Amino acid sequence: MTRNSSAYKISILAILTALLMIQSFVPMVGYIYILPGLPGVTTMHLTVIIGAIILGTRGGATLGAIWGTLSLIHAYTAPVDALTLLIFQNPVIAILPRLMVGLVAGLLYQHLHNTKAGQRGSMAIAASFGTIVNTTLVILLTWAFYSQQAAGIYKTDVSHLIIVMLSAVAINALMEIALAVIVTPFVAKPLLRFKRE
């Protein structure tokens, strides 16, 4: 089996899918809950972003869709807070932002890795924007679908909901971006080197 064959890509996809399943269902692995009542800091975006860099946009989008589906299942089987119960039982909110993480990260890496940004820089940029896309889309879709209910959970007026939600998840988002920028190049670079050999 050559490392560039579809069998190799399927193997990597299967390994990363298994990792997503472990992250999703083993407590404090895929979601680390710091503040009560708020969604946890996720590490699952790392798997999707790394997959997008190694496998390309199709592989990244597939892993993102798998993450989203696991989020949907998790929201029905083991919700940890009222907001998770409310928003991630909606397939659009659970799946679309996660799918876009893989797509955006894969596209950015493909377009930037041969530019002045270099390999490490393009990985960091792809990781940052992939993470930002997830957070932004979850907030916007929550506002679009559940503004009244989410405002009730956050005890705020609907007109201030986006600002309140951004403030509430800002710490999580910053930690997720920092984690992605640090971990992605550290893991993806050797895997890409291995793929080329």
Write up this protein:
By secondary structure, the chain is mostly helical. It has one domain (6-196): Arp2/3 complex 21 kDa subunit ARPC3. Helix content is 79%, strand content 2%. The chain has helices at 6-25, 44-77, 82-87, 91-112, 118-154, 161-196; strands spanning 31-32, 41-42. Strands 1-2 form a two-stranded antiparallel ribbon. Helix 1 crosses helix 2 (44-77) and helix 2 packs across helix 6 (161-196). It is globular and about 55 Å long. It starts with 5 loop residues before the first helix and ends with a helix. The model has no long low-confidence stretch (mean pLDDT 90). Keywords: Membrane, Transmembrane, Transmembrane helix. It holds the Pfam family ECF_trnsprt. It comes from Latilactobacillus sakei. The chain crosses the membrane at residues 12-34, 46-67, 87-109, 121-146, 158-188. This is ECF transporter S component.
List the helices and strands and how they pair.
Layout: H1 6-25, E1 31-32, E2 41-42, H2 44-77, H3 82-87, H4 91-112, H5 118-154, H6 161-196
Antiparallel strand pairs: 1-2
GO molecular function: transmembrane transporter activity
Pfam families: ECF_trnsprt
InterPro entries: ECF_trnsprt_substrate-spec
Hey, roughly how much beta strand do the residues contain?
under 5%
Tally of structural domains: 1
| Main pleated sheet | 2 strands, antiparallel
Helix content: over 70%
Number of helices: 6
- Please tell me the CATH architecture by its name: Orthogonal Bundle
Record field, number of beta strands: 2
Question: Which series of helices and strands comes N to C?
Answer: HEEHHHHH
- What is the overall pLDDT average? 90
CATH topology group:
Arp2/3 complex 21 kDa subunit ARPC3
Weakly predicted, low-confidence segments? none
Main structural class? mainly alpha
**Shape, please?**
globular
Question: Distance between termini?
Answer: 13 Å
CATH class label: Mainly Alpha
Radius of gyration: 17 Å
Strand sequence of the main sheet, in spatial order? Answer: 1-2
